[in-house]
Recover the amino acids of this structure.
């Protein structure tokens, strides 16, 4: 037989493993959820693959997950007969971390010294398979890809290297065996060889998994006694029992589903370790039947603003998992929404291309979008604190919708809020801004810039301050992009305080003043001729001697800077 080969973990993987080994995360139970979730994914993938590839030689007769406990050896094995992995798969999927945002995650983790901060970060990131090393000091994974004959065994203690070798007789699918760390006698709650404990974890975290999760029944003392007298040999084959109830949560009446079940389901599909901020359910009957169970997370994922950020909605057809990251079901600016849409009348063979063009899918997407927007609107009026969390985490993404989705623009403006001169920390809705507008004030004034401090120190603000006009402080890059296109909110147009001749009414400069400053202005115009178009007397300043303004049609300075940075 071939020698086991020793390979090194990629450096980011090594760092993550160190974190797991010295686990700073207190809820270790979730390792089992991660392994069962991987097994369930593997079964989904196999079923889907057999629909796509009729020639695939795979055994799909009894797809399931199986848990085996061995008290004496102190091992726990999670086995599935799903898609399995080739040798290359194992090296690429288990030996490295391909997730976007890993580097940033690790950098932030280094920065946040306190354990609580680290827990939050881990929750945001989700660590999957590696969480095994929170409870195991050695992990053995044996796998064979469906349709192939070559099995592989992978083994590691999580410390820098792993071994990999071919095995001859591996069954289809994957078995992960955890060699559990020495028992903590003080605390039986962490005994993962206890049937009771494992059963409880499965019920709590994986009850809705649609595949059966089976566990070997441990012989009761009574059985053992019988076995002694009769000497039955069948006792070697353990009897298996299905532990989870397997009910698709989205298909159950909402009155029967507890908040906790929703949250566990959310964690399963999102790989988030924190609770969702909001749960949204939808049901449509009639010509095009579907059910949707959507979640708004309580924290933005690391990759929210990365190019390859995933969209979080999964598509099922009649309870069969079809695809992750279904972009046809959710507009890009709501990419943080997670969940499941189960449609009744689609083919199991649908492709992403077909979905993009499907009229009914587009109709579902429009309804989901409206529903999410109205949910946020309700949150805004009924739970200000929750809404504040939402906006802090996702506001920047939502504002992209102002550009991308003209059809829902006013609904998006309605659920948006902005920093303003009215309050030092609390952002304001446009509705509130309008309600505070001064007599005679016609526009919603704003100023864009790099930061609040920069904007607050801008001479442009002086006259507005003096008049008591509130000004929105827009500091996100995306703000530059939408303010020009959007026009206004409820008849009030947006107006930059840095552009054109802002007419604040009243105190015009007098002819006398004009005459007095004429020579100076001429001289300045001549001197600055290469830099500015015109030098004029203004009433907009109160304490600063001068400021630079743009023409009404001009780009804002920040936008100009952005374009320059892009080389345009
Ligand atoms: P995630 O599940 O978020 O992708 P994991 O760390 O849990 O991250 O798993 C990494 C990858 O390893 C999975 O995406 C999958 O491709 C592969 N994998 C893990 N467990 C299994 C399994 N039981 N069967 C097949 N592939 C698996
Ligand atoms: Mg996983």
């Amino acid at each position: 037989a071939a020698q086991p080969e020793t390979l090194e973990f990629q450096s980011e993987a090594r760092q993550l493993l160190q974190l797991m080994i010295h686990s700073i995360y207190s809820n270790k139970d979730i390792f089992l959820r991660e392994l069962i979730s991987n097994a369930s994914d593997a079964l989904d993938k196999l079923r889907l693959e057999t629909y796509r590839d009729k020639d695939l030689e795979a055994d799909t007769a009894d797809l399931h997950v199986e848990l085996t406990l061995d008290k004496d050896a102190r091992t726990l094995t999670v086995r599935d007969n799903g898609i399995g992995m080739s040798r290359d798969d194992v090296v690429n999927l288990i030996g490295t971390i391909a997730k976007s945002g890993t580097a940033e995650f690790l950098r932030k983790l280094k920065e946040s010294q306190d354990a609580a901060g680290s827990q939050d970060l881990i929750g945001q990131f989700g660590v999957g398979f590696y969480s095994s090393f929170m409870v195991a000091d050695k992990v053995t994974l044996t796998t064979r890809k469906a349709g192939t004959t070559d099995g592989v065994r992978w083994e590691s203690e999580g410390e820098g290297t792993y071994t990999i070798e071919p095995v001859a007789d591996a069954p289809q699918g994957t078995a992960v065996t955890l060699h559990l760390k020495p028992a903590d006698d003080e605390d039986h709650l962490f005994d993962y060889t206890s049937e009771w404990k494992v059963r409880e974890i499965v019920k709590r975290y994986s009850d809705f998994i649609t595949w059966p999760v089976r566990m070997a029944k441990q012989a009761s003392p009574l059985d053992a006694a019988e076995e002694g007298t009769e000497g039955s040999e069948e006792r070697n084959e353990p009897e298996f029992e299905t532990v989870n109830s397997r009910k698709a949560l989205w298909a159950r009446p909402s009155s029967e589903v507890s908040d906790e079940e929703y949250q566990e389901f959310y964690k399963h599909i999102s790989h988030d370790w924190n609770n969702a901020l909001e749960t949204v359910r939808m049901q449509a009957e009639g010509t095009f039947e579907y059910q949707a169970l959507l979640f708004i997370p309580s924290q933005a994922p690391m990759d929210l603003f990365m190019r390859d950020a995933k969209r979080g909605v999964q598509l099922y057809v009649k309870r069969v998992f079809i695809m992750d990251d279904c972009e046809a079901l959710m507009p890009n600016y709501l990419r943080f929404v997670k969940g499941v849409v189960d449609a009744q009348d689609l083919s199991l063979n649908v492709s992403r291309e077909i979905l993009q063009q499907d009229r009914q899918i587009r109709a579902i997407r429009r309804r989901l979008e409206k529903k999410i927007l109205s949910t946020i609107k309700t949150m805004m009026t009924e739970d200000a604190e929750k809404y504040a969390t939402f906006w802090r985490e996702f506001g920047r993404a939502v504002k992209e919708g102002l550009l991308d989705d003209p059809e829902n623009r006013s609904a998006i403006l309605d659920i948006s809020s902005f920093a303003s001169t009215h309050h030092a920390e609390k952002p304001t809705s446009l509705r509130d801004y309008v309600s505070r507008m001064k007599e005679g004030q016609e526009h919603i004034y704003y100023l864009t810039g790099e930061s609040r401090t920069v904007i607050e120190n801008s001479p442009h603000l002086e006259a507005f301050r003096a008049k008591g006009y509130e000004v929105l402080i827009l500091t996100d890059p995306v703000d530059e992009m939408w303010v020009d296109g959007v026009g206004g909110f409820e008849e009030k147009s947006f107006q930059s305080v840095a552009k054109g001749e802002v007419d604040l009414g009243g105190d015009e400069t007098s002819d006398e003043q004009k005459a007095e400053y004429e020579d100076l202005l001429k001289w300045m115009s001549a001197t600055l001729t290469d830099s500015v178009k015109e030098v004029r007397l203004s009433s907009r300043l109160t304490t600063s001697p001068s400021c630079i303004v743009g023409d009404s049609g001009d780009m804002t300075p920040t936008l100009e800077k952005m374009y320059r940075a892009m080389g345009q």
Summary: The longest helix spans residues 359-382. The pocket of adenosine-5'-diphosphate (ligand 1) is lined by residues 34, 38-39, 42, 80, 82-85, 93-94, 128-129, 174, 271 (CB under 6 Å).
